[in-house]
C-alpha cells in the first residue's frame, strides 16, 4: 500500500542508552524524533494543527498563514503547508541557523527574519501585528490545543507501548510545552505515579528550543499541574551533552536535546531504579553552521 510523507510522521524509534547512563538499576531510553520526515518532534504538532484548522474552517487555501518560530516548528509547518497547498510566512530571529532558514524556503515558505536582540518574543510580536493589520491567520502553536493533543494521540501512546508499560519517568525540554503537556496527559491516565520532569534553562543561559518564558509570553497551553518537577540546565551542560550524545551514543542532535539528556542523566543517578524516557527532539545537521559542534 503506498504511503504519503505524512503517513510516516510518528512511530519513531526508542533506543536504550548504552554509555551515558551509569546506574545499572535504571534504564534510560531516547526517543529519536529526528526520524520524522521533517527532522523533528514538531512534525507531529504541525500536522495536527494544520489538519485541525482546515477541518474547523479556520482557514483555507486562500488564507495567508503566519507563525513565529525558533526553527523546528517552522520547518514542519513549511513542509506540511506545502503538501496541503497553503501559503505560509514564518517569522524567526535573524540569528537562527542558516540551515533552518534554507530548509523552510526549500519547502516553499516565505521566511521573515526579525532582530536577534528581541528574540522569539519579537518574532511573535511581528506575527501578531500582521494578523491585526493585514488579515493574516496565525497557527499559534503557543495557544493551539491541537499542539499538545498531537502528543496525547501519538507520542504518549508510543512511549507507553514501547516501554511495555514500565515507564516511571518522562523527561522533556520545555519550549511551547506541547510535547510535555500532551505526553503527560496520556501517561498520567495510564499510571498517575509516572513522574513528568520538565527541563528549563538556567537564568543566564540561552538554549535554542528551551525557554523560561516571561509571564506575558507564557504559552496558554501550559498547565503547571501536568509537570511534577522542573530541572534546570546550563547552556554549557546542554552543548557539552549534545556533543557527548554524538560521540558516545551515536545520536546526532541539537542543544535542546542535549539539555534534556543532561537532566535525564542527572535524574538516573539520583533514583534507585526506574525506566526513564527522554525526547531527542531533532537532528544535529541543522546546527552545523553554529559553533555547537566546533
UniProtKB/TrEMBL annotation:
This is Cysteine synthase. GO terms for molecular function: cysteine synthase activity. Pyridoxal 5'-phosphate binds at residues 72, 175-179, 256. Gene3D superfamilies: 3.40.50.1100. PANTHER family: CYSTATHIONINE BETA-SYNTHASE (PTHR10314). Pathway: Amino-acid biosynthesis; L-cysteine biosynthesis; L-cysteine from L-serine: step 2/2. Belongs to the cysteine synthase/cystathionine beta-synthase family. PROSITE patterns: CYS_SYNTHASE. Keywords: Amino-acid biosynthesis, Cysteine biosynthesis, Pyridoxal phosphate, Transferase.
Amino acid at each position: 500500500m503506498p504511503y504519503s510523507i505524512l503517513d510516516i510522521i510518528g512511530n519513531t524509534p526508542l533506543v536504550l542508552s548504552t554509555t551515558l547512563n551509569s546506574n545499572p538499576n535504571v534504564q534510560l531510553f531516547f526517543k529519536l524524533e529526528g526520524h520524522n520526515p521533517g527532522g523533528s518532534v514538531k512534525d507531529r504538532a504541525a500536522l495536527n494543527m494544520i489538519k485541525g484548522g482546515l477541518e474547523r474552517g479556520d482557514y483555507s487555501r486562500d488564507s495567508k498563514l503566519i507563525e513565529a518560530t525558533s526553527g523546528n516548528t517552522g520547518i514542519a509547518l513549511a513542509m506540511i503547508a506545502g503538501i496541503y497547498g497553503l501559503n505560509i510566512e514564518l517569522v524567526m530571529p535573524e540569528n537562527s541557523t542558516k540551515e533552518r532558514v534554507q530548509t523552510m524556503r526549500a519547502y516553499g515558505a516565505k521566511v521573515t527574519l526579525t532582530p536577534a536582540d528581541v528574540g522569539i518574543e519579537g518574532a511573535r510580536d511581528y506575527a501578531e501585528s500582521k494578523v491585526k493589520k493585514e488579515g493574516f491567520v496565525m497557527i499559534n502553536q503557543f495557544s493551539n490545543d491541537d499542539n499538545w493533543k498531537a502528543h496525547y494521540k501519538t507520542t504518549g501512546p508510543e512511549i507507553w507501548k514501547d516501554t511495555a508499560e514500565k515507564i516511571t519517568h518522562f523527561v522533556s525540554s520545555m519550549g511551547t510545552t506541547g510535547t510535555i503537556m500532551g505526553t503527560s496527559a496520556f501517561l498520567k491516565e495510564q499510571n498517575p505515579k509516572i513522574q513528568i520532569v520538565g527541563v528549563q534553562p538556567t537564568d543566564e543561559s540561552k538554549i535554542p528550543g528551551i525557554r523560561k518564558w516571561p509571564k506575558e509570553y507564557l504559552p496558554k497551553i501550559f498547565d503547571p499541574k501536568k509537570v511534577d518537577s522542573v530541572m534546570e540546565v546550563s547552556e554549557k551542560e546542554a552543548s557539552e551533552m549534545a556533543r557527548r550524545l554524538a560521540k558516545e551514543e551515536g545520536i546526532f542532535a541539537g542543544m535542546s536535546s542535549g539539555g534534556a539528556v543532561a537532566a535525564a542523566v542527572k535524574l538516573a543517578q539520583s533514583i534507585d531504579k526506574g525506566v526513564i524516557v527522554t525526547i531527542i527532539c531533532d537532528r544535529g545537521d541543522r546546527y552545523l553552521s553554529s559553533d555547537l559542534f566546533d
